[in-house]
Amino acid sequence: MANSSLNFPIFTFFLVTLLATTITTTYGTFSDEVSETIILKRQEETTHLHFYFHDIVSGKNPTAVKIAEAQSFPGIGFGSTFIIDDPLTEGPELTSKLVGRAQGMYALASQNNPELLMVINYEFVEGKYNGSSISVLGRNPVMHDVRELPVVGGSGLFRLARGYALAHTVMFDIATGDATVEYDVYVTLS
Ligand SMILES: *[C@@H]1O[C@H](CO)[C@@H](O)[C@H](O)[C@H]1NC(C)=O
User: Fold this and answer.
1) Which domain holds residue 149?
2) What is the whole-number distance in angstroms between the Cα of residue 158 and the centre of ligand 1?
3) Which atom of ligand 1 is nearest to the CA of 127?
4) 157 C-alpha vs ligand 1 centroid, how far in Å?
């Protein structure tokens, strides 16, 4: 009898603790650490993507359309902003295999030079990357031979992506404004 009356408060203590724990965990946790090994495993992979970006501003079916311009800088001047849905192909020809689309916007963000602010998602349709995308936010001084644009994120297989894109113009038609740009993208998962 002496033993069971001693054990009763201890049992009650455990029961209360158990209930309290259950109630706490029901609400979940706001943040949690992800196992280091999972992070390290993802970091090992670096992916190189190579494709051609076709910016078509002329003709009946443009893939880049101007949506705004500044009154004080008419024409293609400072402040001009375009929305694009540009095809990405495997080779430099527009007729080569479609591997994705570049959807987003660019704006002339320099008062004196053709320098763009690029805010663009590159969504892929090819192979295992079908449905995955990378997000680019960067400065694009289009007259430079090679421009470096930061990859700030991604989705699908590119979730938590970090990296950079190197853009090099291979064709620019001064009469129409159409351009083809070769991209080399290096992506790691952080
Ligand atoms: C990509 O995925 C979409 C939707 O899941 C599918 O309709 C399409 O056929 C796929 N494309 C390729 C090239 O596998």
Assistant:
1) 45-189
2) 17
3) 14
4) 15
What mean pLDDT do residues 39-53 have?
A: 80
**Structural domain count of the chain:** 1
Rg (Cα) of the chain, in Å, rounded? Answer: 27
Question: Model-level pTM?
Answer: 0.78
pLDDT > 50? residue 1: no
Inside any domain, residue 81: yes
Residues with CB under 6 A from ligand 1: 125, 130-131
Q: What are phi and psi of 13, to 5 degrees?
A: -60, -45
Where would I find the beta strands (DSSP E) of 56-176? 64-68, 81-89, 98-108, 115-124, 133-141, 147-155, 161-172
Q: Are 178 and 155 in contact (CB under 8 A)?
A: no
